[in-house]
Hints:
The chain has 163 residues and is of the alpha+beta class. The chain has one domain (13-161): 7,8-Dihydro-6-hydroxymethylpterin-pyrophosphokinase HPPK (Alpha-Beta Plaits, 2-Layer Sandwich). 26% of the residues lie in helices and 26% in strands. The protein has 4 helices and 8 strands. The strands form 2 sheets. Strands 1, 2, 3, 4, 5 and 8 form a 6-stranded antiparallel β-sheet that branches. Strands 6-7 form a two-stranded antiparallel ribbon. A hairpin with a 4-residue loop joins strand 6 and strand 7.
Amino acid sequence: MSLPTDIRSDIKLTAYIALGSNLGDSRATVLAAIKELSAQAGLKLIAQSALYRSKPYQAEGEDFVNAVIAMECSLNPVDLLKVTQRIENEYGRVRSFVNAPRTLDLDLILFGQAQIQSEWLQIPHPRWTERAFVMRPLQAIAPHLVSDAMLARVCEQAIELLA
């Protein structure tokens, strides 16, 4: 399937991005990344969850700091992916092995109603419904997207709201 790179820039969709960090000052990194994403052309922050702390899930290392944001987006999904990867790299993201500890992880969870399946971009994110650290913050900002039944399936995953 080819990727939709021809989405007109005058069309604005809602993109949901999950943020996480478990290396360095994770709280400061996540907050700074939200600010940086908000400053990008073609993106406007419309909702931001609180910060959460979660145990690594199918990953290694220290606890994560997580959040989810909703952005009004006039970029196409490929350009948005490039923006998120550039920001990850600016924060020292190293992909040494799958699910390695990370300074910053930005996952594109949903992009309007888009359904994309390629080697390097899958929307909706293929595992978002398996992860409490995505669904709890997402439910806080977009309750219509996450049902109580969905949350019940991940209730064994440790996650707590940060003050």
